[in-house]
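Bug #77: duplicate submission created two jobs. Keeping one. Sequence:
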Amino acid sequence: MSEAAPEGAPPRKNGFLSHAIGWAIAIACFVYLYFRIDAAAARQGSSFAPYLASVFTSVPWGQWLALMIPYSLLFLLIDSAVVWRVINWFNARVAYVDVLPVRASTYIISILNEQVGKGAMAVYLNRRDGVPGWQVGSSMLFIMFCELLYLTLWATVGVTLRWDALPEVFHAIPLLALGVAAFFVFVVLYFRGTILPNNRIRERDIMHAFRQARPGHYLGIILLRSPALLAAVAVYTSCLGLFGVDVGMGEMLGYLPVIFFGAAVPGPMRSVAITLWVTLFPDNAGEMAAFGLVQHNFFIFFNAAIGLLFLRRANREIWGSAPTPSA
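Kept job's structure:
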């Protein structure tokens, strides 16, 4: 166990540095977006603000909400199912109806930090079943690794289907996928003890899920998660049409996994994801900036609003009972 910081010691700078990097990335993205949108406005004989306002006023928002609200609810159900499945594999027997409200409430925290949101699941299982926090953290890490695998897989499928229609930079995705596949093989062999059998890192609690996982577990999570991505492809394609930009579902399948990677980059307002949309559709800078802004941020804040509905129950589940003796 690490020693506590002595009284009066200066606070750690890691948190400040990560926030500073996130804001620096966001500022750089927004500066880039401003000049791209301003140039698009100038081509139409307008200025920045009126041009962007005209984009927002032209969208049929009722139809857009009719697409986004069901998608957000579907994502919650699938995301909770993924967490429930992994916890039951590697940590404790928990009912899906017990996981869903806690997972939904963590979306509130995830507005600021996704990792802290996942940490609430560790608190929940520790208090409910006495599961060590590091072991639950291992399950959350396993989920993140599976997300890398499934996004890479679907990005490769999308690029393969729309090879000639996508920007040339996307042609590197199959090569990156080979690297991810090689890393996956290494992970499986390492935790089986085939590679580096004397290395003890695998014995730590944070590696608990990976020690138990078999290839079928990885495949199961990819299959369970994939309907959310395929639904996103359909919804984002339809929503983009409401913004006046036509794109095929096959083309969107090549774009969206990469965009979701960008959304994971630290920084407020999912600025990297918005910038990627504008970069991919440079002739529709205003439409794509507005689209990226409302798509990603509505998804975050609407999910947080769903979490508020479950917050009282989640608080009762997490804090309403004392830890079990095994904790």
